[in-house]
Every structure is written in structure tokens, then in C-alpha cells.
Amino acid sequence: MRTYAQALPAMIPVMHALFLSSFGPCKRQTLPRRLLPLARALAARGHEVGLLIPAWDCPQSEARGQRSEVGGQVGEVRVIVPELGLGGGGVYPQLLGRLQRQIRAFEPDILFVSKGLGYAGRAGRWWMKQGGQIVVDVDDLEPAWHREAGRNRLAAWLLTRQEAALIRDATGVIFASHFLLAYYRHIRTQHPKRPLASLPYYLPNGLIPAASRAPVEANPPRALLLTRGHDVDAGALVQVWTQTVARVPQAELLIAGGWTPPQPLPQTRVLGWLPPDRYTQTIRSAAVCLFTPTKKPLVQAKSPARVLDCLAQGVPVLTLDVGEYAALVREGGGEPAPDEAELIARLQQLLTAPQARGRAGQEAFAGITPLHWDRRAASLETWLLQLKPEPSQAPLHPRLR
């Protein structure tokens, strides 16, 4: 994988690209898990890339000293975190103007707007009115998140309407899952007399591979479940694990993340949220990563970084055939289990046969090349060259023609 800027192929022009986050890194994971690694991958391929962060959701005590109008560098990416100005509770009257000034100063060929919500959505709309080109990056089913966050109906309606309108009018839209592509088609049907100007593109999350694969064949018969709390089919997990322990008495299950089983599970430890270094160590100590994702729309819409975290370390992944959990495993050369019975059989085999899981780990590590962030960035370059604005839109910047 490239780690430093390299010369681009002759047919790929250098882009001046700016990523605009919808919020800071304090609560949700889109910024560190998607925007920053994609921005860094593009910069490593020779593009000029910036990341603009309106950190309105971060407590002032945490963010003080981190924000400046100038910003800093993360690898080859210029990071800009404007001062919020007066306000509080997420309302900062000066922030939108400061975002607009930073965008104008950066003068991007393409402005990537994450989610198209709130300050970022308004700044993206403003840039379009200035003749700029924007691409909206959609990685969540936001209407479902509004309910999850407990927003009132008016706020949820306004944010959903804002996102849908920007998706409709943008030059292009990136979707992190096949489920979200279906959401795009739903938006298309809402106003059949007003065709969408945007071109859709499927771009799931990527990974950065470890220097070496985990020694899974030497690890104890330990399964690891990584979860954010709302993504586990508890009934399926109880069935899979209780039957597995009955067949493999020495097996152990670790659960890392914000979820506790509704009933005690045999030979199971709940670790809670882990710091980054311990998180990676825990993955590398496992024999297999186990996922029993629920089929809720909110979960099917996600591109699960936790699956990629396991594959990046060369740990075999066993999952039910659900959404992007299955899609990422297939992209890496694996095959999801069609039902709980097959998942139990595969889990039993890997937990009881060190040589079998060693081979599975080697295959998992060898198959992750298509999942590299560098590959994601390369495919994004090709797609961007296909963008053709509608006659009502300003022409693409000369470097993107």
C-alpha cells in the first residue's frame, strides 16, 4: 500500500479536494473511520487534500486548544478546525460564515460534503450557488439515526429534507452501502418530475493492513464479537454461542463495545469499550471474529469498520449473510454463513482446529488487497472523471474536465 505521495497516471489530473465533515470526532465515528482515511489515501496518491471540521458537537473543554483558523497536518492532509465563536448547545451563529470563508480560501475543485446535514449541508449548498461542484458522502441512514438520537419530529423532518435536497442537487453522491443506494432510488421517486442531477457511486469503507497477520493458529479457542450496541441479533448470538460451547467446552467469547447480552452467556467476558491499543491487541489475540448482525435498516445501511478491523489483522471473520457484513467478507474472498446452523458448524471447526484457522487467517490476510483504502481512492478517482454536470450547473473545474 502507498504511504507517501506518488506520481499519478497521466490520465488522472491532480485534484484540489476538500472534505467537509458534518461534526467533530467526539461522538460519532464517520470522521476518523471514513473521511480521514479516505482523504489521506487520496493525498498519498498525489492530490492536494484538506479536511474541514466544524466541531460543534465537541465539548468546549475538550476542543479548546485544538481549534484554529489555520489548522494543522495529519499526514499529507491539511486539517482545518475553525473557531466556533459565540454560542452553545450546538448553535453557533458565526460558524457557517467561517466555514464559507475556509471553503473559498481553499478553492476546491470538488467539495466532499459528509452527510449533507446541519452546518456542512448549508455550507455545501452555498458553495453550489457560487458555482462550485460538490459530492455528498452518505454513510448512514440518517432518518433512522434521528429516531435513535431521540430528535423531535420537526428537527428530524428538517434534517431529512436537507439531506435529500442536497443529494438530489449535488454533482455526485457516494454511498457506503448497497442499502443506501436503494435509499437513493427512494429519494428519486419522491419527485418524479424533477430528475436527480447527481450520479451515484458505491464506496464502502476500507482498511489499512497490519504489518503482519495475527498468529491465530497459536491463539486459544477464543471468539471475539465487536459491536456498537445496536447491531447485534441477540437471539442469534445466544443460539450460536450456547450450541458452540456445548460442542467446544473450552471455547471463550469476548464482547468488546457498548453492548451487554440480555442474558448471561456461558464462558463469556464483556470488555466494554477499549482504547485503541488494547482494541488492536484484543483482535490479534482472537482465533476468530464473530458477527450476528441484526437486519434492522440502520445496521444494513452501515459499512462496518469492525469487520475490516479483523480482516486487516488477518483474523478470520464469520458472519451471517446480512448487508455490508456479508458484502465486505465476499469482497475479501470469503463467504458469509447462510444461517445459524452453518455459522455454528464453521465456528466449531475454526475453534477446534488450529491448522484450519491458520489457513483461514492466511486466506483472510491475502484477500484484503481490494479492501485497502488506496484501492478505494483509486476507484474514486476514476468515478470523479465520469461526473458530467447538468446544463444548469457550472462546468467542472478545468482540472476535472
Structural class: alpha/beta
How many separate domains make up the residues? 2
- The average pLDDT score comes to 87
Output the CATH class name of the largest domain.
Alpha Beta
State the strand order across the main sheet.
Answer: 3-4-2-1-5-6-7-8
What is the fold named in CATH at topology level of the largest domain?
Rossmann fold
Q: Spell out the helices and strands N to C.
A: EHEHEEHEHEHHEHEEHEEHEHHEHHHH
Low-confidence stretches: 1-7, 61-70, 389-401
The CATH homologous superfamily of the largest domain is termed Glycogen Phosphorylase B
Number of helices: 15
Termini gap: 28 Å
Biggest pleated-sheet summary:
8 strands, mixed
User: Beta-strand percentage?
Assistant: 15-25%
Write down the Rg: 22 Å
Kindly describe this structure.
The chain is an alpha/beta fold. The chain folds into two domains: 16-206 and 374-400, Rossmann fold (3-Layer(aba) Sandwich), CATH 3.40.50; 216-371, Rossmann fold, CATH 3.40.50. The protein contains 15 helices and 13 strands. Helix 5 packs antiparallel against helix 6 (153-169). The longest helix is centred in the middle third of the chain and has 17 residues, at 153-169. The model is unreliable at 1-7, 61-70 and 389-401 (pLDDT under 50).
